[in-house]
Amino acid sequence: MNTKQTPDEKRRLEKVINKSYDVIEKSDYISRDLSWLKFDERVLDQARDVRRNIFDRLKFLAITASNLDEFFTIRVGSLYNYIDYGKERTDYSGLRELPFKKTLMAATQSFVTETHRLYKEDLFPEFLGNGFRVIGLNDLNHEEMEQVLDYFNRTIYPMLTPMVFDHTHTFPSLLGKTLIFGVVTKSEGERTESNINESRKISFVQIPQNLKRFYVVEREDEIMFLPIEEIIRHEIWKLYKNVEIESVALFRITRNGDFDLVEHEDSETDFIDEIKKKIKDRRLGRVTRIEMEGGCSEWMLQMMLKRWKLEKNDIFFSDTLIDFTAFWQIIKHAELKSKQVVQRASVPALGQLTQKPENIFETMKQGDILLHHPYNNFEPVLQLLEQAAEDPQVLAIKITLYRISKHSRIAEALLHAAENGKHVSVLFEVKARFDEENNIREALRLQKAGCFVIYGIPGLKTHTKLLQVIRNEGDMVKSYAHLSSGNYNEDTAKLYTDIGLLTTDEVLTRDISEFFNVITGHSQPHSYQRLITAPRDMRKSLVKMIQHEADNARAGLPSGICFKINSLQDKITIDELYKASQAGVKIQLIVRGICCLRPQRKGLSENITVRSIVGDFLEHTRIYYFHNNGEPKVYGGSADVMVRSFDRRIESLFEIYGTQVKQQAIHILDWNLKDNVNAYTMQEDGSFIRCASPAECGDDAFNIHKKFFEVNAAEVMEAKLFQEEEMIEEELGTEV
User: Fold this and answer.
1) What is d(CA 518, CA 513) in angstroms, rounded to the nearest whole number?
2) Which residues contact 544 (CB under 8 A, 6 or more apart)?
3) Which candidate in 372, 373, 463, 482 is catalytic?
4) Is 625 annotated as a binding residue?
5) Predicted model pTM
6) Annotated catalytic, 463?
7) Which range (267-276, 323-332, 653-662) has the least confidence?
8) Residue 433 annotated as lining a ligand binding site
9) Any binding-site annotation on 649?
10) pLDDT tens, 491-518?
């Protein structure tokens, strides 16, 4: 088998791809996986942006690589779960699993080719002018080379272990997302024309993950980054003394990390043990991708493809560096040296809230407060927990945790609260993907301190973000709450845009109490007044409000829908949005990532527009707006419009009810619709067009990732959605 495609193979593949795209174009829905790839293309577009400094551009290139790792670990891994076990699956695009995989891999190959072109042609030439270089060994002087060799002999060499595969040694368990050398060797004196393949041996040398990717050489006028693999490649002969090395090639594999848990309702220990077992299994899951440098041994590559049951289009060849996530080391080094990246100071929220309230309880009594992170500091949320932990009047704290930071002030506050005799209930979702180990460790620590810890709900992921503090205030017991679209993670709160509501509203806090009783106990509430929850009734509630807007449009009443979400994938909800569009409802969707709805299709979705915001901050906010004949209903919360959110997760959306906080949410949507720097508009075919090129923005640039740091109360109160139609109606009425 030759790993290079023959002309006939290329023609056959092109025929399959062309036929697949004919099917895709006819579908009323966009493929989730192809849509995800379009999102990573928008992230890559940030690396093209010449307005950004070189370190920002490298950052976005590293993010695309990290995203692609997760894509192959989860999405392609999930696809292989169907292919490997003969299960049928029809994608939203209308394609069955095998033709869809060919189409997906072809699109991914094109994307990866572009990432390497961008690095080699656009970014790499900019390094020298910015005071650094990525170098080879030939760029070192004699003294520097001696230091590098000393580093290899003292630090690297003792950590390396060649693992041979032959008739007496089993194929080694290679780690995913790790740089590995594949080495083909032959003992001296064995080679003959007749036994060349039989006498060959292949061995693998994994580069230890706890070694930094680049060896740094600092000169007076520049900083040089030497890839560690080049040091090992130069010295790898020391591992194969008296053996002929036929070829050495660097590669990296990605493994399937998509797994289902067999949950035991009757045993907490079994449940945790099952998660730990699955984490280990993930490390040895089926291989979904090979990244390989060019010029590798065909014989070795054939063996790997056969071993891992892969095809030629599962190999991604590189003529530059493998694994662009390595650039984080350069970026962090540059931040320390040049201080080019400066975190902007957040601004106070509207209302009575300061950055660090002296008494958060007194502040919250004055009215609801909507926090918009990172523009508003996360500090008030931390203060609520930290003051609650110390306040003798606080009786109880309840919280749901999905992802927390490594050195979490949230966890420390909960520990202190338990030590101070408060009743602390923590629903800790230990099934949060890739955070399982950290969450299990922190949950056990809280449990040992005396917190009442629940390790998630069998069969569901707890994704809702809720915090409640119960305080004895003499003649009454008062509830203080925080509801959010984002995690209780003070680190990501500086990088992700999210909203959080601080409230003492009795209706909403009563709903929260009921909800906690449901998810921590065995209770079924009659109804909620200002909460919408999943899996109970979220899809049904959203569909009902969409249908209400459609009814208003048919009756000639004002109508409109605006969602700001991360992902849109649920077919039932998409179909209702199509129907509302056909009824005349104007629908404006702001979807950061996956969007399976097809906008602007004649007769189907002509009144629907979709835009995506991709820029300095990761857009994570979820806001749902319904015009409601001039009396808007607005919700925020943890859920996207996805099947998993509605059917397989515990989620909540909270009504943003007060006049000021509702207006703030409307203002966030309004400015998201005005952004012309970070915004992309989705086309009917699923592609995205940037709203303006860097040169076109000029003085009219409207960049929400900067504007929200400068917002004032007057701008907030003036914001209004769907005002264009109303202004036209007013003008017509005046003329009459």
Assistant:
1) 9
2) none
3) 463
4) no
5) 0.92
6) yes
7) 267-276
8) yes
9) no
10) 999 999 999 999 999 999 999 999 999 8
